[in-house]
From TrEMBL:
This is Helix-turn-helix transcriptional regulator. It comes from Nocardiopsis codii. Residues 1-37 are annotated as: Disordered. PANTHER family: BLL4672 PROTEIN (PTHR35010:SF2), BLL4672 PROTEIN-RELATED (PTHR35010). PROSITE patterns: HTH_CROC1. Residues 38-85 form the HTH cro/C1-type domain. Residues 1-13 have a biased composition (Basic and acidic residues). Transmembrane segments: none annotated.
């Protein structure tokens, strides 16, 4: 960390400390008079499990670059949100920690968006493990129901390699292209969540049951599709083209796919 970085880091610590509420005194004990708002340095260092001398040097911009363990302890001591913790890590010269797994709950506003587009376009939401979390009515009409259940029944890659859904939806050439992308994105998911038991079990299951998956997996491809035009078969309206855009909620690692009907089919 440069001297200016250490100064900015120390200022952030002071602001967070000043924003914390002092602990309530025990019943019957008169509260001591405080000269400044928030917690004392000693109180913060006790909560974080570090020496008050070291914490003081951090605030004064005189300490060397803090370790990831120290940054984690400080974030927990201050009760920081995910965004605030990530900011603390960046100020400390470290990349923010990766989440152990995607969030399982979709933002209420995003669910309202899906319902509001029922009559406009298909919309789906999946997480960073490629598990489908939600879709609106238009997406259900286009994509149909899930063809399998079990622990991986809502996983897009599992559906692609173990059912015939893609052949009906995308045709031969389109389904083969999707399989390649599914394997590549599953590899990205596993690299982001290397300790995720669900993803490891999923890969093991596909490797044991799908020759197509083994062939694609052995290619070692890594890619992510964020924009495309696909020819898809709608059960009620026949073949049509859809322009697909993918939006990302990085805090929860949720991916929103919007299928805009294309007029040139």
């Amino acid at each position: 960390m440069s001297s200016s970085d250490r100064t900015e880091f120390g200022e952030y610590l002071r602001r967070r400390r000043a924003a914390m509420s002092p602990p309530a005194p025990p019943r019957g004990v008169r509260a001591s008079r405080r000269r400044v708002p928030g917690l004392r340095r000693q109180e913060v260092s006790d909560i974080a499990g570090i020496s008050v001398e070291y914490y003081t040097r951090l605030e004064q911009g005189r300490a060397p670059r803090p370790s990831r363990e120290i940054l984690t302890s400080l974030a927990q001591a201050f009760g920081l949100s995910g965004a605030e913790r990530d900011h603390l890590f960046r100020l400390g010269g470290e990349s923010p920690p990766e989440p152990a797994s995607p969030a399982s709950v979709i933002r209420p506003g995003l669910l309202r968006l899906l319902r509001g587009l029922d009559d406009t376009m298909p919309v789906t939401v999946h997480d960073g493990r490629l598990d489908l979390l939600a879709r609106n009515r238009a997406a259900e009409e286009l994509l149909g129901t899930f063809a399998s259940d079990g622990p991986f029944g809502r996983n897009i890659a599992y559906q692609a390699f173990t059912t015939d859904v893609l052949a009906h939806l995308l045709g031969g050439e389109g389904s083969e292209r999707f399989l390649r992308i599914a394997a590549a994105e599953l590899r990205i998911a596993l690299s982001r969540y290397p300790g995720d038991a669900y993803l490891r079990a999923l890969v093991a299951e596909l490797a044991a049951t799908s020759r197509s998956f083994r062939d694609h997996w052995e290619e070692g491809e890594v890619s992510a599709s964020r924009s495309a035009i696909k020819r898809m078969h709608h059960p009620a309206h026949g073949w049509g083209r859809f322009e697909i855009e993918v939006l990302h909620d990085p805090e929860r690692d949720h991916w929103i796919m919007l299928y805009t009907p294309h007029d040139d089919e």
